[in-house]
Give the backbone structure.
Amino acid sequence: MEIAGQDAELPEIRRRSRYFALAVLVGFLVVAGRLFYLQVIEGDTFFRVTSDNIVHTEVLPAVRGQIRDRKGRVMATVRPAYNVYVTPRLLTPEGFARLRAVLGMNGDEAMDVWERVAEVGPNGKPSDRPVLLAEDISREAMAAIETGVDLPGVKIVAGPHRAYPMGMVAAHVLGYMNEISGDELRAKKDEGYHAGDLIGRTGVERQWDGYLRGRAGFKKIVVDRRGMPKPDIHDVIEGPAAQPAVAGNNVILTLDADVQKSAERALRNVSAAGVVALDVNSGRILAMASKPSFDPNEMSGHLTPEAEQRLLADRYHPLHDKTVGETYFPGSTFKVVSAVAALEDRLVTPEDKVKCHGSYEIGRRRFKCTKTHGIVSLYEAIVQSCNVYFYELGARPGMMDRLAKFGGDLGLGAPTGLGLNGEDSGFLPTEEWYREQKRLNPKAEGFQVGQALNAVIGQGSTRVTVLQMALMYAAIANGGKLWLPQIVDRIESPDGQTVEEFAPRVRREISVSPETLAVVRQGLVGVVNERKGTAYRARITDVEVAGKTGTAQVHGRHTELGGYEAGDHAWFVCFAPAGKPRIAVAVLVEHGGHGGDVAAPVAMEIIHNYFENVAPNDRDAPKVGLPKHHLKTLDVEAARP
Amino acid sequence: MNPARGVGWRRLRFRFDWTLTLSAAAVTTLGLMNLWSAVHDKQSNLFSQQISWLGIGVGVFLAVATVDYRTISRYAYIFHAVGVALLLGVLAFGKMVGGGRRWFELGAFHVQPSELMQLLTAVALGKYLNDSPALEGRTWRHLAIPVLIVSVPAWAIAKQPDFGTAFLLLLVFFTIMLTARLRLRTLGAIVGFATLAAFPIYQHLLHEYQRKRVEAFFNPNSEGAYQTRQALNAIGSGRFLGKGFLHGTQIRLRHFPALWTDFPFAVWAEEWGFVGCFVMLLAYLVLILWILKIAGDARDRFGATVCVGVAAMFFWHVFINVGMVSGLLPVVGVTLPLISYGGSSILTIAAALGLVMNISVRRFSY
């Protein structure tokens, strides 16, 4: 059939098959080039993608450090909590109904949760991955679930939960925590935060988060497509496969839980108030209370929408820290600044006297005094809180700027440096500021002497925080050291070793002469101990207290409305013992009324308890007593017209 | 009868083509290593089955190599007719698997005749070209029988539907016809017509999943691109030297449909890297070029045509398979010869290599 060897077509086929061979070569080169691109040029990228796909990094949460008071009493800790997880694919509607009853979910919550659980994955089936259904359930609920039959797909997993064993005590100082938001997570990616982490929101929990949180560990495991672990494969993991979590450090506060509790108890009869008690000789804060308070246990993971609504709608603003986050007119407590300014700039001597008729006229305006005091020296003006004496000083040229200068020197008008809870700087107006206001708004008055008259008694535009006042009085008490307030004493490792210790730091030695300070201190002793002193009725006998009352008038729209918000703020700022000061206390009761009647008893109770229970050895101090000479000069009744 | 034909076994022993055998054995060895890596940690008897198929394949190879190919060529049309009958049988009685009828069951085995049909078509074309010389080059007039030879099986395979294999059959056909003095102008006309026909085929004849694959190729993020993406990840992550034998991760941990049959190259590329891929491609290249050399040395048109056909089968399979796995081409179900798991593929290749060996050992006998 074939005519072999005579085939004229064979050479042609041979030739063409050589072209085909060439085409084969080219085809293989194209493929090889493609592989070179994928494996050599882009290889590293693909490699990363594949290891990300199959290496699942399990975060091992770090145990958060404790917050303790200065005596080591635990104020914030971590306790085990029981969380309910369900595997959606296994959960039956009956099981869910039972779970709902046990956990006491209401209709809306149950709907939300059910939607989350019933959500189908890409394969059209409910997920195999457990979903967190409820956190920190009660023991009763746990018992019901554990012993309950027919709850397929439901399991209870123990996890750490932040707890505040003292409840509402020092809530604003401690702060609270909640889940980190997506934005924060992106911003803090490099600091080792993970999705679902709790982060300190306020107080020490926020400010010292870096010390408290420790470092989360990780465990890398190889998983297959379904997320099932493949423990026998580990060569894919680059770098260490696991790193244990490092527990957070403990933060030891300067706070004394006893003083704190006593301060909070002393506020039992008022609605809204701020209290700061600190060590005069170190600036260490012993107590810092803001009323009304909140329960950080509730805020950290148990806040229902209703409770949140209730907290936000509360007219007394429980979440707001009234010791540093809010400013008030200082009222008469500011008169120590006025006295210091007048004495230092030699506008008056302690012996100079002014006659008080109950009011002071300047131009066509009348500035009222609290009552008619008659002829008063600086001492009596402080003791009885005579406004007219200070109006007279206020009318002197340049008094406004003088107040700003000495007030600033004493720490007002600027943040104290505590850093907690969005500290407000307060405000000290100057003449220039008033003129500036006029430039910005032609309807404003500009600077008038009247403004200086208001400023000199702590009204007008002057604003201070409770903490600033406590620090200022401490500086007056200790002879001129303005401390940097300190809330954290030291950092301890989880096993109790001191990691970092913070020594008291002086913010500034104030430039006020010791003589001036002595005059002011004598006046403050008189406020409490003179029979005519504004705080005389609140005085305690076991320790000599020096202080100043203040009754700050509130102006603004509430004054017209009347009611609670129109009442005066009651102030009392003091230190004790007067002869050898140890503790300074500032009390502000919002809309409480008269400082001597409302705020002073609170401070006195705190001081009494402090020397009774906490530091009885510090009570003994030389008495300052009352000045002898004032008996003959202070013939006020006779001087009355 | 030529006495030479009676001593096929002796001729085979004396003129045994070691290059052909060893290069094929090399590819097979790489394939076995690869299959072992892919299945060694699974409950699977794929590896032992593949060994069995390869054992049978060696028998088929020797059997086909021993009988003088001229004897075989005499029955070329009959073989072809049997192949077509099998295909039609598949269409009529085949097992529905994954939306198509591609095989039927013969006892315990799945018989998938579409692979074999490529070889049978090459043999039938060889017979035709051998019997009807065309000294002036072939034009339309000479295409009637060849087109008939290829179009019936191509239609039947496309009907299964298995467009990948049908397309491959056409590629083999064109390659053969091109070397067999088909005029370029004629070829150009055919290609032009095919291009025009491609669009309506895509629109109306392709199944949904097939269209998705094509779309996936042009849009790597579409849902059909899962396999391609996994394959690219596996290949690329092998980098230059690979993750090492038995150390591939993508294949063991990710779900990979049609891994043993269509995607073994991804396993290889991941574990052996670019270097391993290069070695494998080189082994294929040596094999294909050697087959083409045998084609050039063949003493008649039948031998030359069959060798070109077998070389074309190898080339297009490797090119399309690696091209699709590496994302150069859309995903079509095309096996990697001697590496993909599957009896039909291995036995077809064994028979094809047997024929080539047959032609090689008889190149000097007249």
